[in-house]
Every structure is written in structure tokens, then in C-alpha cells.
Request: fold
Amino acid sequence: MFIDRVTVRVAAGNGGSGISSFRREKFAPLGGPDGGDGGKGGDVIIVGDNNLATLLDFTYRDSWEAESGKHGSGSNKTGASGADIILPVPPGTIVRNKETNEIVGEVLASGDEFVVAKGGRGGKGNAWFATSVHRSPREWQPGEDGEQRTLELELKLIADVGLVGQPNAGKSTLLSVISAARPKIADYPFTTLEPNLGLVSVGEQFTDEEVTFVVADVPGLIEGAHEGAGLGTQFLRHIERTRLIAHLVDVSDASGRPDPVKDVEVISGELASFGAHLEDKPVIMVASKIDAVNKDKLAKLKRYCKKHNLELFEISAVTGAGIEALKWAMAKRVVEVRKEEALPTEEPAEFF
Reply:
């Protein structure tokens, strides 16, 4: 089950209290105060884990509490600190404060970690309050309470290429052909009810070195998706992190939609209306199902792509026609975008 948004309650551990104690030994009648400090409460820490793909684990348990610190004891012994609690999440997870909607942190890679709730500080024992004129202090401090928060975890898949298009445009079939992914494939709309990821490798015969990239099959979009129609905005956010969009258009008669240009404009409009600058991402147009092509639809799509200076690839996932050329084009564009992202940003000149 693909779960990409959950609400959890977290509580860091409370700090242990200090203690009021005095040294009592046979040959030390004036031993003085020796109350130890309380231990620090445990933190709640979010950590990225590549072995996870959804937030499913948080549907079974939605409340997490770290261990509290132990109280101090005599002989200036500090109480043990409470154990931290680690919450693993898949890369691409955004953590928000549910009450303020502020972003607490973001996990972009495996191993990324940050504290979402800090443990309380341990209180001081009476040994801290001894002075030259106040030699027998009985004061001590209680431990501080740990932070408590209600958090919203939202997963946005991290993929290099996002496959978009009308329902039954052939996205799942294409993903199953170019990768080892096995998404559900059927001849009715909205077959795919959750995004699927596939790893694609293009060998050295196409590039200077082997290129590996991740492709996401995003469930079919329809007109009004940004307002909740169909599957709504539920999966549009998964396109936000993609480097490239591959827009599939069914050019066969099977779709029942006679105008491929309208199909393109509907999806493009939904991406633009979502409000995350999806329309600014580089796009590759893909004419799918050319094994059963309607020549008029294909010709109309070609004219549209030429007018808007869009690259168009004709493919058939059934016969394999055009698949290798499309994979090469995806790899080439992904490499280009990665290089652009790796370029150092110019820093303003310093004047002395």
C-alpha cells in the first residue's frame, strides 16, 4: 500500500531532576553537598532510509515518545540520559509542524537526519548551589519537559523522469518495458492508483558511460485534477522533484479521445494550475501505441510538437518500436539537467 501523507504525534523525553544530597562519611563530618544532576531527555530524530518507499509504518502507530532522563543521585552522580528515538522515513519526505504548517525539515537522501523534538535538559543537583557563604544548600532543579509536537509527514517521490498523460496512455506499460517494475496494467481508466518507480539503465552504446535514472509512473490525470477531479492533486506533488517530464499521448483509436492536442493541453494546463512551476520543467513528448496508430491523430500531434518546438518520440511498448531511442533521449536529458544542477552558483563579488 502506498501511503504518502500521515500525521504523527511525537514527544521528546523529559529531563531528570537534580537531587539534594549531602556527603556522609565517617571521617568527613563536613562533607558538604553532593547532589548530582538529572540526565537529559531523549530526542526524537527523523532519519532518511533508502529501504523505505512509503510512510506505511506510521499508519500502524501514530504516537512516539522518547525515554526520559534519570534523576541524579548522591556522590555527584549524574542521572543517565534518556535514549533517543529514531523514526526512519523514505528520502523525499517533508516534515511540517501540523499546528503552524511550518517546515521542520526535509529528507533528501538516505542518512539525512534532524531532530524534530528536543529532549528536556536535566535539572541541577544541590552541589551546584554551594558557595562560600551558603555551604549547605538544599536547592535543586527539576528537569525540563521535552518538546511535544504534532507533525505531518508528506512524501514527494524523488525521480529523474515523471511519466504523465491521460488515463490509459500507456505509462505503466512503458515503465514495465524499460525497467524491472511491474505495475498493474489493464484496459480500463485509472488502473494505476499509486505511483510506481522503476530503475532504468542505458548502456555505454548510447552514452560515454552507463547512465542510471529513476522513472516514476504518475497515475492518470484528467481535466480538473488540480481542483480534485479524478485522483485529484493526490499525486501531482510527486512530479515536483522530477528533472524531466515524459508526456505520453495515445495516438490509437483505443482511447476514445479523437483530439490528441486537446489531451496534451489538458494535462499541460493541470500541471500549470498545480502551482509548483511544473510547467517549467523540460518535456519530452511521446506518441504511444503506434502499433495501432491513427494516422490523423499522429499527424496532428506532430504539427503541434513542431509548432511548440517539442521533441516527439513514437513508441510501441508492445512491439518495442522506438523504446531504445526514447531511453537514450531520457538519459541524455537527465545527464544534462544533472550537470546544470551541479554547476556552482555565482557568489557576489566582495569589495574591500
